[in-house]
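Document type: protein sequence-to-structure record

Subject area: structural biology

Format: plain text, a pair of labelled lines:
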Amino acid sequence: MTLPKVDIDCSKIFHNAQCLITQLGLKNISVTPVTKVFLGHPLIAELLIKAGAKTFADSRLENIQRLAQAGITQPKMLIRTPMLSQVTEVVKYCDISLNSEVDVIQQLSEAAKLTNTCHKIIIMVELGDLREGVMPERLIGFIQQIVTLPNINIMGIGTNLACRYGIATDHEKMALLSKIADELEAKFKLKFQMISGGNTASIDWALNNTRATRINHLRIGEAIFLGFDSLTQHQITGLHTNAITLTAEVIESKIKPSLPWGKRGTNAFGEKEEILDRGCVSQIIVALGRQDVCIAGLTPPDGMTIMSSTSDHLIIETSTKSVMVGQTVKFNLDYSGLLSAMSSCFVRKSFNLIKVSQ
């Protein structure tokens, strides 16, 4: 199989990673690259190490295992709350995990005690996006239940914003996280090493903030690979936005009516869209479908409009020149497109390793 394929320009990813690590470092903020969209691919990890990465993060234990088995020795962070069924493996493969459940931390303690290791945890704080995290007013009671657990090191606190509801990172929220850190340290006589202020959506705040906070860490994936601010979908200054593209082949090219005929029900996915009669149109079908990629995450070339899709077919209307069967179409990807394409076994991955140097 040669198509569809994802083309990965490693030199551009290297540039993006090095740029972010350097710029945020000037703000005393360390960057942990998140490797989940590349499924913990060792080539990407090695590339990020050359760019200055000191730690790695992933939401899937399987990806972290892949990094470890490939000989990546840098500390690894599990950024999804561990499953109780996986605590033994979490302690074995992960140096750090993000946590929001007492029961899970207690089991991590038991697993770490059995192997005579110390597992580091970041306690996640809910600041409004309503994904994971302990409500601020419940943090004291939460920590009281875990602070004396053996083989557990409370490394710091963190938060997640923008992923569920798009709640923005701003000075008010980062100042609150900093204040919470101060209060918890004073209450429990702790010294936090890490105050993790979020993900790609926190970059704009971090680079432009001029007021003092304790935020010293971000978990970044999307900006490194795609060069965009996830909140606004605007390019981050100085970063490449075309490091990764998806190419697929045209399998039909015809002039067809824009209006279907016959009795209509729902389509194969239970959908029934409104359709306008626009006369005859130039239509191509690309060998790419919902089983391969999140269609909403694709941006076609100028002069082409994605009209609909099925499991295996992508229907595009063209307004510029005719496209022949056998030709290819190259798409840009957003985060949903990249995540799904990289996870699909039907999409080939092609790494361009040229011009990557330390």
